[in-house]
Specification:
Helix content is 35%, strand content 18%.
Length: 283
């Protein structure tokens, strides 16, 4: 990797987020994202893609109304609740720009955290950047659970990430859209960390701020969520073990040289190859 690659002029970025019964938070979140992206001189083309995960409150109606104020907002969704993992994957599949920022719609991750990412992304420091929460605003049981699952995930994957489970990530679009995500619940962030590492990429961790959710309630119960996370972390670790021994193989995907016209926004030499782009966006 070059020691001092030339900066790209601007960052072209899609924000992708799931939403389930977030009527109390979604308008404030989307408008915060819009104002930041529209007002940041380092950001060029941008869009916001939100997947409504079968909400039973006014989330979908609020999102639809927001499209009049924010034409860059793309709304997709399910007729029934399918889980955060499915909603994140759907939002990612509908992005189209060179980079994708993953956020949550409950207001816990200020988009201003991107200030710490922009220069490093534009400089070509990597293809995958993850926000490490300096001080988590969750309750003590959730912090303990996240710390425990992160420690086990690091052990199983031979990594040393400070915040294995953080959803706040900025990833090169073709790489992220090529992942075949399987998680159905709240474990999508853990899976994305693991799957990108499987492909041989190192996450660049950047400290970020974390705040209490804006309103409403979590969409999953603590003990059931803890059980499911433990099972899923074990599954990812077992999968990694099988891959290392050649029992499983990574799915075939065409390579796209970095810096080619098919991989816009990334300086040549950042890495040898990335996965090809995923499915086309359907509005």
């Amino acid at each position: 990797m070059p020691t001092s690659p030339a900066l790209s002029p601007t960052l072209e970025i899609s924000v992708a987020a799931p939403a389930y019964n977030e009527a109390d938070n979604i308008a404030a979140a989307v408008l915060e994202w819009r104002d930041y992206l529209a007002g940041n001189p380092a950001v060029g083309a941008w869009e916001i893609v939100v997947c409504d995960d079968g909400s039973t409150d006014a989330t979908r109606a609020i999102l639809t109304a927001l499209q009049e104020e924010c034409p860059q907002l793309v709304v997709v969704g399910f007729d029934r609740n399918r889980g955060a993992g499915a909603a994140v994957a759907e939002a990612i599949a509908h992005t189209r720009l060179a980079w994708v920022a993953l956020l949550d719609s409950d207001g816990q991750f200020p988009i201003a955290n991107l200030d710490r990412f922009v220069d490093r992304v534009r400089a070509g420091d990597g293809l995958a950047f993850s926000g490490a929460r300096v001080r988590k605003a969750d309750s003590l049981p959730y912090r303990w659970g996240s710390a425990a699952s992160g420690a086990v995930s690091n052990l199983l994957h031979h990594t040393g990430y400070r915040d294995f489970n953080s959803i706040f990530k900025v990833v090169h679009g073709p790489l992220l859209r090529a992942l075949r995500l399987e998680s159905g619940g709240m474990n999508c962030s853990t899976e994305i960390t693991a799957r990108v590492a499987e492909l041989g990429h190192t996450w660049q961790e950047i400290p970020i701020a974390h705040r209490v959710r804006g309103g409403g309630q979590r969409g999953w119960r603590f003990w059931r969520g803890a059980r499911d996370r433990a099972l899923f972390v074990g599954y990812l670790g077992y999968r990694h073990w099988l891959l290392r021994r050649g029992v499983l193989r990574l799915p075939d995907a065409p390579g796209v040289p970095i810096g080619s016209p098919d991989a816009p926004g990334v300086p040549a030499g950042s890495a040898a190859y990335v996965m090809a782009a995923g499915p086309e966006r359907v509005r």
